[in-house]
Design brief:
single chain, 216 residues, alpha/beta, Rossmann fold, 5-stranded parallel β-sheet, 3-stranded antiparallel β-sheet, binds adenosine-5'-diphosphate, binds zinc ion
Length: 216
């Protein structure tokens, strides 16, 4: 299964993709996570990406597409993958088609997660991430047992730098202008599945699994 998760920042792409990756035993590839890893390791790619990310802008396509192309060549992608946060522009979508076609591969499903603006803002403002293991919490809806401490590893919970309020507004604008056109793009290709992710990600995952089971 070769899938793309679409949706606004804070729509829950990462949470849903993580769960689907477990169900189907395929890698969850988040470009945001790949960039944050590069930034943490101070690589040259990380340095290039950081300025754009902290301004709420997209990292240039040349950098992003090259990084994803490399990742998709790895052997764990042979039986499928879930892309989270890529493509984010029509140009990225076209490049993805080209690079998959080289190995006779193609995308078979694009899942668009739908949530209200109000929910997006509340999810992002409450989001906390474990600095050690990356586990995601929400202060309001999914708090850790102990304030500021990860349940899984005891690491400390931090806010993503680009979750600061001004950057969030810029990210939402970037999404509307550059990424939202992909919804129509994939509708035209008859690949789009729209799912309400306003409430529980567990129900969203069940709905997707039931849909895919119905296809076979
Ligand atoms: P979210 O979906 O919540 O905005 P991500 O973790 O997916 O968060 O992305 C964080 C940031 O990384 C984005 O705001 C953007 O700057 C950069 N980024 C991620 N994926 C891409 C992409 N496909 N193209 C360009 N920039 C990207
Ligand atoms: Zn942790």
């Amino acid at each position: 299964m070769r899938t793309i998760m679409l949706g606004a920042p804070g729509s829950g792409k990462g949470t849903v993709a993580t769960k689907l990756a477990v169900v189907y035993d395929i890698p969850h590839i988040s470009t945001g996570d790949l960039f944050r890893h590069h930034i943490k390791e101070h690589t040259s790619l990380g340095k290039q990406a950081e300025t754009y990310i902290s301004a709420g802008k997209l990292v240039p396509d040349e950098v992003t597409i090259g990084m994803v192309a490399e990742r998709l060549q790895e052997s764990d992608c042979a039986d499928g993958f879930i892309l989270d946060g890529f493509p984010r522009t029509i140009n990225q979508a076209d490049s993805l088609d080209v690079l998959l076609a080289k190995d006779g591969r193609a995308i078979d499903l694009v899942i668009n997660l739908m949530v209200s603006d109000e929910t997006i803002l509340s999810r992002i403002s409450g989001r906390r991430v474990c600095a050690s293991c990356g586990q995601i919490y929400n202060m309001k809806t999914q708090p850790s047992r102990e304030d500021g401490i990860c349940d899984l590893c005891g690491g400390s919970l931090t806010q993503r730098a680009d979750d600061a309020p001004q950057t969030v507004l810029k990210r939402l604008e970037t999404y509307r202008v550059q990424t939202e056109p992909l919804i129509e793009h994939y509708t035209e290709k008859e690949l789009l599945l729209e799912i309400d992710n306003e409430h529980s990600s567990a129900i969203t995952v069940q709905t997707i699994v039931a849909f895919l089971a119905g296809l076979h």
